[in-house]
Write a structure and sequence with these properties.
about 475 residues; binds nicotinamide 8-bromo-adenine dinucleotide phosphate; pentose shunt; 6-PGluconate_DH-like_C_sf; 6-phosphogluconate dehydrogenase, decarboxylating
């Protein structure tokens, strides 16, 4: 009898190919399929020696080569292609079979697909996979949604190929239907915020403190040894230390300063608006990319008056480290609040601490301080904000003088720090005894009779602004 594959991967571009190799390298016979057979052939020719691959030219062959219940992973371009592949394979499957979508799908699409396939007796497991092509090959962070039943059959395989930190797999069942893709989306949003904050720190050290890229690379290397230790800090020092071979200039100086924003970062902000969760750090990061990418607008505005940074060492390196750490805590606090809000909205029952655990390795935002986040949620699973956890409260208390100095100095020097400053504004907003929202409510009642509530009595009220200005119960 011919050997059957334990799992199959269809879509063999960079991510699918590496995921299939990772499975094969872990001793799992893997069926491989791609729309155009060329990629399948190439994979087996190049990497066939790494494990057991069962190449399939057609969808029927692919399905026939899988043991039951079938586990089929889709790694194609998210959107229409995912639906096309589901439409092609679902009719060939039987109740109890599992389709795993490892692409970057919108969680609402995942919910729709999960429901439609559930009605046909199939499990649909929307799965966030982070770590890029290297992660897919050597161990990504994996965020599977879908039914608990499907996780029983899939979990051991996925945990096996995921990254491990202290022996713990960076993979756990996130929650039903779209929970996995939702968490992956917020992960990417946090990634946007983290990158923006690091970029602001670089800008402050470069234009505020007058340091050269190679020196800043050393500073980041030093920071990587401390509480900021993370993959993003590590690669930042690598990028800053790199010299352009063609010109001999620092690499960072020859790269066009226009970033793109698309997909998951934008979705995170859109969904946060729907849920009413202020993720200002992520939003500022998305908007900063939009601003950078609007070349025409920037060119039209280039001559606007303002201070020109002199690089006169007004900015202290240690202050920037403290501002970066405090702002980063805020960005993560906001992201985790969005996960909790999504979980409440869709009844996912997501364990926030477990998300910190599976982000400790494999993924782009892997960082030392995720251990602290895990500890915070272990201590109080219902923690309203990371900022009120004892450890983070102390950290921000210690960092805030420097944080305020950095924001003030940057503002005076004309260096934009939307991430640092919005994080500080959020922090001050959270801790405020009274917010000017009271005045906003008064304005709304004046022009639209929207009513307001009082601090001293229950009920809703309205002032007769156009009349005798007496108060009436609404
Ligand atoms: P791409 O996103 O570039 O997609 C290419 C693959 O999709 C090829 O296998 C292609 O087949 C297939 N495909 C397309 Br396009 N349209 C199809 C259709 N109508 N029917 C069947 N197959 C179709 O690949 P990737 O960069 O490897 O990413 C795969 C997924 O993983 C994406 O959803 C991506 O967002 C996600 N992801 C990527 C990364 C990353 O770092 N790249 C990280 C995390 C997640 P063909 O060979 O016949 O054209």
């Amino acid at each position: 009898m011919t050997e059957l594959a334990r799992i199959g991967v269809t879509g063999l571009a960079v991510m699918g190919r590496n995921l299939a190799r990772n499975l094969a390298r872990h001793g799992h016979p893997v069926a491989v399929h791609n729309r155009s057979y060329g990629r399948t052939k190439e994979l087996v020719e190049e990497f066939g020696h790494e494990g057991t691959f069962l190449p399939a030219e057609t969808a029927e062959q692919f399905v026939a080569s899988l043991e039951r219940p079938r586990r089929l992973v889709i790694m194609v371009k998210a959107g229409g292609p995912t639906d096309a592949v589901i439409d092609e394979f679902a009719p060939l499957l039987e109740p109890g079979d599992m389709i795993v979508d490892g692409g970057n799908a919108h969680f609402a699409d995942t919910r729709r697909r999960e429901q439609a396939l559930r009605e046909r007796g199939l499990h649909f497991v929307g799965t966030g996979i982070s770590g890029g092509e290297e992660g897919a090959l050597h161990g990504p962070s994996i965020m599977p949604g879908g039914s608990a039943e499907s996780y029983e059959a899939l979990g051991p395989l996925l945990e096996d190929i995921s990254a491990k930190v202290d022996g713990t797999p960076c993979c756990t069942h996130v929650g039903p239907d779209g929970a996995g893709h939702f968490v992956k989306m917020v992960h990417n949003g946090i990634e946007y915020a983290d990158m923006q904050l690091i970029a602001e720190a670089y800008d402050l050290l470069r234009r505020g403190a007058g340091r050269q890229p190679a020196e800043i690379a050393d500073i980041f290397r030093g920071w990587n040894e401390g509480r900021l230790g993370s993959y993003l800090i590590e690669i930042t020092s690598e990028v800053l230390a790199h010299t352009d071979a063609a010109t001999g200039k620092p690499f960072v100086d020859v790269v066009l300063d226009q970033a793109e924003q698309k997909g998951t970062g934008r979705w995170t902000v859109q969904i946060a608006l729907d849920l009413g969760v202020p993720v200002s750090g992520i939003a500022e990061a998305v908007f900063a990319r939009s601003l950078s990418g609007d070349a025409d607008l920037r060119s039209a505005a280039r001559g606007l008056p303002g201070p020109v940074p002199t690089g006169a060492s007004d900015v202290l390196v240690d202050d920037v480290e403290q501002a970066l750490y405090a702002s980063k805590i805020v960005a993560y606090a906001q992201g985790f609040n969005q996960i909790q809000a999504g979980s409440a909205e869709y009844n996912w029952n997501i364990d926030a601490g477990a998300m910190a655990t599976i982000w400790r390795g494999g993924c782009i935002i892997r960082a030392k301080f995720l251990d602290r986040i895990k500890a915070a949620y272990d201590g109080d699973p219902g923690l309203p904000s990371l900022l009120v956890d004892d450890h983070f409260q102390e950290a921000v208390r210690g960092a805030q003088d420097a944080w305020r100095r950095v924001v003030a100095t940057a503002t005076t020097m004309g260096i934009p720090v939307p991430g640092f400053s919005s994080a500080l504004a959020y922090y001050d907003g959270l801790r405020a005894e009274r917010l000017p929202a009271a005045l906003v409510q008064g304005q709304r009642d004046f022009f639209g009779a929207h009513t307001y509530r009082r601090v001293d009595r229950e009920g809703s009220f309205h002032v007769l602004w156009g009349g005798d200005r007496g108060e009436v119960t609404a």
